[in-house]
Amino acid sequence: MLELTAQQVRMQQRAADKPTALELLCRALEADGLVEPGYLAGLQAREAQGSTYLGQGIAIPHGTPQTRDLVVRTGVRLLHFPEGVDWGDGQIVYLAIAIAARSDEHLNLLQLLTRALGEGDTGAQLRGAQTADQLLAALSGGAGTLALDSSLVGLQQSAEDLDELLLLAARRLKAAGCAESGFLAALQQGEALYLGNAIWWLSGGDKVSRPGLAFVTAQRELQHAGQPLRGLFCLAEHGDAARPVLDRLCSLLVEGRGAELANSTSPRAVLEALGGELPVDWPSLRVPLANPHGLHARPSQVLMSMARDFSGELRVRVADSDAAPVSIRSLSKLLSLGARRGQILEFFAEPEIAEVALPALREAVEQGLGEEVMPLPADAMPATVVAAAPEEPPQALASGEWLAAIAAAPGIASGPAHLQVTRRFSYAPRGESSEREALRLNEAKAAIADELDTLVQRSQSKAVRDIFVTHQALLDDPELAAEVSERLVHGDSAEAAWDSVIEQAAKRQEALGDALLAERAADLRDLGRRVLARLCGVALATEPEQPYILVMEEVGPSDVARLDPQRVAGILTVRGGATSHSAIIARALGIPALVGAGEGLLQLQPGSTLLLDGERGQFMLAPSAETLEHALHQRDQQQRRREIAEARRHEPAHTRDGHAVEVCANLGDSAGAATAVALGAEGVGLLRSEFVFLDSPCAPDLVAQEAEYRRVLDALDGRPLVVRTLDVGGDKPLPYWPIPHEANPYLGVRGIRLTLQRPQIFETQLRALLRAADGRPLRIMFPMVGLVEEWRQARDLALALRAEYDCADLQLGIMVEVPSAALLAPVLAREVDFFSIGTNDLTQYALAIDRGHPSLSGQADGLHPAVLQLIDMTVRAAHAHGKWVGICGELAADAQALPVLLGLGVDELSVSARSIPLVKQGVRELDQARARELAQAALGLASAGEVRALVSKALGEDR
Ligand code: PEP
Ligand code: MG
Q1: Contact residues for 594 (Cβ-Cβ < 8 A; gap 6+)
Q2: Topology at the third CATH level for domain 150-274
Q3: Which terminal residue of the chain, N or C, has fewer Cβ atoms less than 10 Å from its own Cβ?
Q4: Among this protein's residues, is 62 annotated catalytic?
Q5: Residue of 224, 581, 654, 853 marked catalytic
Q6: Model confidence pLDDT, tens digit, residues 108-138
Q7: Is the entire prediction scored with pTM above 0.90?
Q8: Is the C-beta atom of 688 inside 6 A of ligand 1?
Q9: pLDDT digit string (tens) for 70-109?
Q10: Ligand 1: nearest atom to the Cα of 783
């Protein structure tokens, strides 16, 4: 990424003409080791092809593809020519920016420069600059013009209070390039101003990259500070760029038209009222850009020159982006698009010239805008396809053979395959007439609305019903409807308009970087597919009446949550891993599940019989009657074992030779504690306290938290509670706790690192826990500890607070999830009261495999000998100091892992509440002495597969 800094600038240079200036520039690049001798020929050749003058006294000389090999490293050097250099055609350059780049990195430089190239007289400022800083300040532009276009208006949003509206507005400003990370946090310090008519105003000048105004409204009237709240204006303030819009807004309010804004359902009407940039209402055309280095200066100049041939206005944008289209007469605006090869350009032409101009533009872009272009791969062409299916059809699955997949939730299941996979939909991109297309779309939507009504009425669980109610709201969303109508008016077919609006909206959701809001993207796509299928006349497979095996490409937690365990006998997915959160939910629902079965699943005929074994990690297509009978017999045996396990669930778990293991529950909410006890839990081994924070729109206060923790302790009735303090960051973002973007959040500020940065939130949580304890057994552990100092800092805070409360039975420990914690266990064991090993994260960090990775996570197996070594080290160190060790990752519920973990000497297993009876039963069927031998043998093996084979054999002999 190219950046401009004062060190790159050479002030007060002089050159009699352009060739001399080029020599000086090249010398500067060479002197700083950016290019090798000979690059000058490239600069000269490039100027001969076309001037690199950009406007406002700025030129950007750079080499040609032939001289790219002479670039040693990417960089720029800026030469200031206060007396000016004639760059040809009477264009005078005061600042030349020489670029050394091997690829198209200079596109990003062009984007940086667009503000300087826009309004104002940057040329004069550059000329008069006395210092490098002044020069750079001139380049970064003054106030600029206020951004206010359709991407910054969000009407009828789902929001519950001012904070949520503010979050939505700030995100729009960020997406529009007006605000940077930290903008929201700075704004939250300010007080919102009431403007009347349920409209509020909040502005901030911190972390603003360019001025912009966002306007968001809520679906229903809310309250804030005793006043009604419906709409919020949020200004990213920079200079006085907003003044004209503010004047207009004041007039509107004085004229009593505020309510119009607050209740509007049309972004266009809002923009019209405020004088913002209106979405154009003109014929349009989409064409892919094939230029190797995107829409850089030369092809942009060709486009600009085409504009001169037409008397009307022509605009362009990168298709499906939120950005407003820009005029093709402005080089700076064209460059600001930053369009790259493979992206689709969407041109808009005034109706009078559209018929001639649009085909001419298509031809020019297709021919490369003056450059030689290689054709794009077929899938980059304007798509009539929703989702890419694999290029080569994967091999069909063999029938009657056991096929391997990743065991995600135990149990044997069989039934007809019900495929819920992304379908291809073919449709014409252009429609007959906007009226006809609107009619077709409305018919399709009405049919889906009926289906949704039925689904809502049929849903027995509230969670499932809520999902379909959300779909109803999305189907009726006025903002989506307005965007679709706009496309229909431009001539899109109903399918194309609906499809692209839904996809764009889904992408916007995903880009919010907020797990909860991003889940809405899946809902949008789900609904989008239903309507699209209806429009295309494609029947989506109907749900079989009898219990079926659900086959999906990948399963998200919300997909699983909406399943009806009475109808879904089992789940089989193409991708996914055993420790993904969806697998955790499948286990909690008691649905046998296999994940990561591979692309071959996509070839399955709907309705074909599947047999799956969620414990052994295998499945079979079209099993013979004999195999099916055998498997079902096994299932019955397992059922009987489960019945015995359930009958004995309240008994302690002792091995045959009398070794006791404590079996506790993992909980993700306070409501589940009573059920866990009813299922035989001897305590809670992991309370994922994030739920208290995730269920709340802002950080929960002391009282709210204390009530949640008390609820769990009350239900446990004297049994111990192990609470993990807040573990957010990485894969668990909190909407109201924005974390600056990190290249690799899994290795970034998360878990204890994050809470230590927010001592106030941390302290409130600790106080709430200590207050709730009331002398009952409370164990507090800190997540993601990787350094001894982190543990000590957290411990010291907890101990300092402890003195204030009655907490006689308190233990403090850490989760062992980071390999360094296991390796430092001999040091830590002296200080902690206990360790709880989080094998989900420990495995991902030890093996360097993302636990949710679509194709690799299957290899993230906690029975890998490398992970077992870390567990062994931890247990030995803990026992040497008389401390206990628990396992709270998913491995604790894995039947094959049980003998190994017991053999390594772990003292406690914490599993999902449903698994407790079977885990206890599993312990009862084992022999500690034999388990120890098995574990020792496992430590010496080479792979998880070898360990599993060893255990299978041993269990086969024992049971
Ligand atoms: C773990 O990492 O094993 C663990 C229990 O924590 P979580 O799954 O919540 O990250
Ligand atoms: Mg973890």
Answers
A1: 405, 406, 407, 408, 570, 571, 572, 573, 612, 613, 614, 617, 618, 619
A2: Mannitol-specific EII; Chain A (3.40.930)
A3: N
A4: yes
A5: 581
A6: 566 566 556 655 677 888 888 888 888 887 7
A7: no
A8: yes
A9: 888 888 899 999 999 999 888 899 999 998 887 656 655 6
A10: 6
